[in-house]
What does this fold into?
Amino acid sequence: MKVSVVLVFTVIFISASVSASDENSSTSVAARQARFEERKLRYEQDKKDIQSFMTTKNLFKTVVKILFGTSDESAATSRQVLNVLVQALDMIRNSFSQRARSSTSRGLREAVDDATVAGVTMLRGYVKSVLAGDDQCAQRHLCESSKDAIREGRELGYIVSQVGGYASSYLLQQQKSIPSTSTYDAVRRGRSGEDCAKIYTNCNEAE
It folds into this structure.
């Protein structure tokens, strides 16, 4: 869990340059505007939370607690770090996803955007699996992230999902002692488009 500190700092600094934008929709202007305002409000709240977390004083306290605190303090602080990371990943994913959808032509830049969206989606699924309360929920998060990566990553989504699935399975086996066969099977099911909620019915955690 301690290595998550380095990861979250890197991702949060990237997310500082990300800006939210509206999605294309065939529904009414009023409905689009309402969704835009909702996303904007959520984006601003996430940005505020991340900026608050990134103050020098808070960063110092966080690192000290993770490295030198009691087991309970370290675990609680690590979960806080990972929750902030999930927020940052959501911001990055939404930005790249919107940019890819708004492009009128497909080229190298669009392919990189697709791969980035798929990669961030898989990383988000891995982080949520680390935060999950039990193995069933960890597998469900991986299943859903794999399914989303295929959809959002277009042609490159399958490859990113496959590689990310192997990496996530290995790391979760080391961190949470979840058999890699179980976690990778969850990734495979998501990649196949199966209904993750129906497969892992014992997990009640909200997505």
